[in-house]
Amino acid sequence: RSGNLDLLSFLIMPVQRVPRYNLLLEQMVKYTWPHHCDYDPLCDALRRIQEVATQVNEAIRFRENSDHIFRVKKSIHGFPGDLIEPHRRFIRNGTLLERTTDAEEEEPPTKFFVLFNDMLVRARRTEAKSHGVQWTFEDGAPLTSVCVREVEGT
Q1: Per-residue pLDDT tens for 126-147?
Q2: Beta carbons within 10 angstroms of residue 57's beta carbon
Q3: CA–CA distance, 10 with 113 (Å, rounded to integer)
Q4: Across the chain, which distance is largest between two alpha carbons, in Å?
Q5: Residues 6+ apart with CB under 8 A from 111
Q6: Which helix H or strand E contains 67, and what residues bound it?
């Protein structure tokens, strides 16, 4: 520790500087006359820092997506294959009550669905004494074979 900052605070500093440089350069371009000798180099520097900011943001989104897929992988047991693929992007997940055409069913089971850019995964709830609620893989389908439609009365 140095002063009131821990290691994580020092590691994030370079990432936090990029937006500050962008704001500074925007203001410098705004208040520099277009015919001034520094105007073109400032515009070039602004364009470059905006490119760096875009790359940093994309890297952060990629990392967050990978982390989310990893958490989903840990929560669903029995998935055949690997959820973590270079092309796969997490879209959304959640629990739903799965209705069937079976009228005798008293309470529909709670299912866990995960939507990726290329597939839909369905899991059923299982109780694990040491880990609380867990999910067991039930089915997965590529999005090319999934059809979603609105059901009347829902």
Answers
A1: 866 666 668 899 999 999 988 7
A2: 13
A3: 39
A4: 81
A5: 95, 96, 97, 98, 122, 123, 124, 125, 138
A6: helix 39-75
CA distance 43 to 65: 33
* Mean of pLDDT over the chain: 86
User: d(Cα 131, Cα 75) in Å, to the nearest integer?
Assistant: 10
- What whole-number distance in Å separates Cα of residue 72 and Cα of residue 95? 13
User: What letter would DSSP give residue 74?
Assistant: H
- Record the pTM: 0.68
Asked whether the predicted pLDDT for residue 118 surpasses 90, the reply is yes
78 contact partners, CB below 8 Å, separation of at least 6: 136, 137
* Winning range, highest mean pLDDT, from 6-20, 57-71, 95-109: 57-71
> Tens digits of per-residue pLDDT, 16-40?
899 999 999 999 999 999 999 999 9
Rounded alpha-carbon distances, angstroms, from residue 126 to 43, 57, 71, 99: 58, 37, 17, 18
Q: What is d(CA 117, CA 143) in angstroms, rounded to the nearest whole number? A: 8
Interatomic CA distance for residues 23 and 46, integer angstroms: 9
Strand order in the sheet with 76-77: 76-77, 132-142, 119-128, 110-116, 90-97
- Dihedral angle, C-alpha 64, 67, 73, 75, nearest 10 °: -100
